[in-house]
Specification:
The structure holds 2 protein chains of 2 kinds. Chain A is α/β, with parallel strands linked by helices. Chain A is built from 14 helices and 23 strands. Chain B is elongated. The chains are: A alpha/beta, B alpha+beta.
Chain lengths: ~475, ~400
């Protein structure tokens, strides 16, 4: 059996086309499809599973899949941190092309050599391991890397000095006031393989087709990291005092709920609609700056003092606090919107109705280690520790989670609203971790100046109305 | 048990190994205290950025550090399990002891570096840092201390000297910009000698660098030859060769004749002046050198500094087991013997610095049987002697 991991999301259609062209017809894979486990026409020896791109290098490195197709950037993201992993890049498919660039606000940093003069450098990226390699290669004397779930381009200059991000459109950086400092990688979709599978399995029947599709492209697949940059010795970077209060509101699935809550509270931010978003909406309140970022990134921004008040999900806050228990971020108000349960989920065929029963069953089967898949790995880790699991490992995943159990994981930590998706995927809930809702968070011990305090109290007061109305 | 529960690259130390560990540590501590050094210990976890700036660790070493986001890593700053002890000690000096010059410090502590396969990833070091002392006396003092420790352990090492200033002078002469110099220097620190070949074209008239610098010679004669080969084409090489000559001369004056190996230094960017390594056969057992820029780099004042560390892992492999007398005494109860009597005797013997094991089963060496009729004391297979009281039993053991 040859096991292949294919990407969900934007790459579905071009990858499906490439595969068809190479004679591999994966049934049900293509635009609009939400199936995770697929068959290949006329090839009973091929098993296909669909993952988020980010998860594919991990699955191939683990040996769960022999071959995969994903963006090269996600391969480097794992190899920068774990260079010993048995991952091999085999061929460039020339689709899903883009560039990973290091960029900065064009008004603050004109070239990469200026970074050293900043003292403490703040880097933000969806690719934190590449960003870490960037900082080390530049031999930055003092830096921090903020791992973000997305919208990295919204961070400079207030919340980051340098961002590493994937750019697919030449107009993207200028449009957001950014300038490219260094092109770090030519990004595109690549065929990758597990080194042990290549050594031990005959993959030729699939490899021939995939590599023919890859052709003979001459582009570089290596990271281009910066040369050492002259640094200001032991620079701390002068903190600039500000007088405005900074607030973050979420994009994504929370946006609709938060927009509604703001309306109930009588707050209207120009540029932040039910579906429309600009990154820096006008608050209409003197002394209040608003920014739209991913809800997952808000607890950290609040903890570092970059943002003073934010509306996010309790799931995001808890994940942050499980990872960083001493963080000063905390919940001040429950808006009681976008409610869902975070649950422990297993295969429906598992002969147990609760966690105790499931653990007992696994032990009776002689299982020495359990695999837990979770989009919130710190939460999953805390759950496994507090429930006294024996030996376990947590696989962080980016999505497409319902397909992990039972083949690739024993247990899934998953958000459930109605339970319908769970049932449709032959899964069942065996434990409830907690109920998540939208909440307002701030920083413990924050010292606001007079105007900031005034705006903060006004916001808390008005948002409380939205809480009561839910 | 089919699969070890021990984490890969970590090791258990069993009693015989711990005995050797303590012998090495004791010899090291005695020498350090004897030379007027004071013991310190730095934290296991340090900020990652201490080790990332140019002039600290090479990229190859940084690739193998155990780094992670601590529980308060929401700031985005990573921490590491210390991969090196010199940089943390320089930080300790800069933050706590800046007024005390020279600071003579030593430590016995572990460092963590990722290694392939089952090679140990936790190494113990016996290290010394001399911060604020005048070179070359400071360098020579450290070499003498290291040799004295090894002599106490019965190890006869060979000593090799180098100076990274030679290589830096060559890179400078080759016209490389500062970032390129760091890059090439790091390649050579990582063992990539082809980097030297690439410099050759930029240094017309220079000897074949890889061949010349790979030769190991001895003392003043070899230094003189190197000077003759390099100084006509590498302007800045005079200063490091002068430094090295001064150290060689002082060592020679006290009867120590080192070998000279120009490309000796690996992995550590922070060395700025004479460096040395110690070998037992082919095995490297320690090394150190001058790091005059490091303390200033991490926020302290610029002070001349040097240090060395002995590698416990290598020493454990070559230092033999101690074959001293077994001074332990075993006490056991038989035939109505009272445990209270056994413990009372054990306390009395321990007050006289005997090692006493109650309930032991050994009948070799010294052992005492406590019965209803008193004590039977047997020493090294001799005929047991009777004793009626604890004091008589203690006297029998001491006399025996």
């Amino acid at each position: 059996m040859i096991k292949i991991a294919l990407p969900a999301g934007d790459l579905r259609t071009p990858v499906a086309d490439v595969l068809s062209g190479a004679g591999l017809h994966v049934e049900g894979y293509g635009e609009g499809s939400r199936q995770y486990r697929l068959a290949t026409r006329g090839r009973d020896d091929v098993r296909v599973r669909v993952f988020r791109e980010k998860d594919i290098p991990i699955q191939v490195a683990l040996g769960n899949y022999d071959l995969g197709i994903t963006s090269l950037a996600w391969v480097h993201e794992i190899q920068c941190r774990f260079p010993q992993q048995p991952l091999v890049t085999l061929g460039d498919l020339g689709i899903g092309t883009g560039r990973i660039v290091a960029a900065a606000s064009r008004e603050h940093v004109s070239s990469i050599d200026n970074i050293g003069s900043l003292g403490r450098v703040r880097l933000a990226s969806e690719y934190p391991n590449i960003a870490e390699s960037f900082a080390r290669s530049a031999r930055l004397a003092h830096y921090r890397v903020q791992s973000v779930w997305g919208a990295a381009h919204a961070y400079p200059p207030e919340d980051a000095d340098v961002v590493l991000l994937n750019v697919t459109d030449d107009g993207f950086l200028p449009e957001h006031g950014l300038v490219a400092l260094l092109e770090v990688l030519e990004n595109s979709a690549w065929v990758i393989g597990n080194a042990r599978a290549l050594a031990e399995k005959d993959l030729r029947s699939v490899l021939d087709a995939l590599l023919e599709a890859a052709g003979d492209r001459a582009g570089s697949h290596r990271l281009r990291l910066p040369a050492p940059i002259a640094a200001r010795a032991n620079g701390q970077g002068a903190a600039v005092p500000r007088e405005v209060l900074r607030m973050a509101v979420p994009d994504g699935h929370q946006q609709r709920h938060v927009h509604e809550a703001l309306q109930v509270a009588g707050l209207e931010f120009d540029g932040y609609g039910e579906k429309t978003t600009v990154r820096r909406p006008e608050s209409g309140i003197e002394g209040l700056e608003v920014k739209v970022v991913r809800p997952h990134d808000m607890p950290q921004l609040v903890a570092t003092g970059d943002i003073d008040i934010a509306i996010t999900g309790r799931d995001c806050l808890n994940e942050h606090l499980y990872q960083f228990p001493s963080s000063p971020s905390y919940e001040i108000l429950d808006l009681q919107r976008a409610q869902y349960n975070l649950s422990a989920v297993v295969d429906r065929e598992l002969p147990a109705d609760d966690l105790a029963g499931a653990l007992e069953y696994w032990r009776s089967e002689g299982r020495t280690a359990l695999t837990i898949a979770a989009e919130y790995p710190a939460t999953a880790d805390h759950y496994a520790r507090s429930r006294h699991f024996w030996r376990y490992r947590v696989i962080p995943i980016a999505g497409a989670s319902e397909g992990f159990v039972p083949e690739d994981a024993d247990l899934l930590i998953e958000g459930t609203e109605t339970g319908r998706t769970i049932a449709e995927n032959n899964l069942k809930v065996i434990d409830l971790l907690y109920r998540s809702t939208t909440c307002v968070i701030t920083r413990r011990g924050a010292e606001f100046c007079g105007k900031q305090q005034e705006v903060f109290e006004h916001l808390c007061g008005t948002l409380a109305k939205a809480s009561g109305s839910a | 048990m089919s699969e070890s529960m021990r984490s890969r690259g970590m090791r258990d130390m069993l009693p015989p190994e711990m005995e050797r560990f303590r012998r090495i540590e004791d010899a090291f501590r005695k020498v350090c205290l004897g030379w007027g050094y004071r013991e310190v210990r730095t934290p296991t976890i340090e900020h990652m950025y201490l080790f990332t700036a140019a002039g600290t660790l090479s990229p190859q070493m940084l690739d193998g550090v155990y780094s992670f986001l601590d529980w308060d890593g929401w700031s985005g700053e990573r921490v590491v399990l210390r991969p090196d002890s010199t940089i943390p000690t320089a930080r300790l000096f800069a933050e706590n002891l800046a007024g005390e010059k020279p600071a003579k410090l030593f430590y016995v502590q572990n460092v963590f570096r990722f290694q392939q396969g089952d090679d140990t990833r936790e190494d113990w070091q016996c290290g010394v840092e001399l911060i604020g002392a005048t070179p070359p006396q400071g360098d020579v003092e450290l070499v003498m201390m290291a040799l004295e420790v090894l002599e106490r352990l019965g190890v006869k090492p060979s000593l090799k000297l180098s100076d990274p200033g030679i290589l830096r002078a060559i890179l400078n002469q080759a016209g490389l910009a500062q970032p390129e110099q760091i890059g090439v220097y790091d390649r050579i620190l990582g063992g990539d000698m082809a980097a030297l070949d690439e410099l050759q074209a930029s240094l017309p008239g220079a000897p074949v660098l890889r061949a010349t610098l790979s030769v190991e010679g001895s003392g003043a004669a070899y230094l003189s030859s190197i000077r003759s080969l390099l100084s006509p084409v590498v302007a800045d090489v005079t200063a490091p060769l002068d430094e090295l000559s001064a150290v060689c001369e002082m060592l020679s004056g006290i009867g120590i004749e080192p070998a000279i190996a120009p490309l000796l230094v690996r992995d550590f960017e922070y060395y700025t002046g004479p460096a040395f390594q110690l070998f037992a056969g082919e095995s490297k057992i320690g090394g150190g050198g001058r790091y005059d820029a490091l303390v200033a780099q991490i926020g302290g004042e610029a002070v001349p500094s040097s240090g060395f560390a002995l590698d416990m892992e290598a020493l454990l492999a070559i230092v033999g087991d101690h074959a001293g007398d077994d001074s332990s005494i075993s006490i056991r109860c038989e035939g109505g013997g009272s445990s209270a009597d056994a413990f009372a005797l054990a306390v009395a013997l321990r007050q006289r610095d005997f090692v006493v094991e109650v309930g032991g089963t050994s009948t070799r060496g010294r052992h005492i049987v406590v019965s209803g009729e008193g004590f039977l004391v047997a020493v090294n297979g001799s005929q047991p002697r009777k004793a009626s009281t604890v004091d008589e039993a203690v006297a029998a053991v001491s006399g025996g």
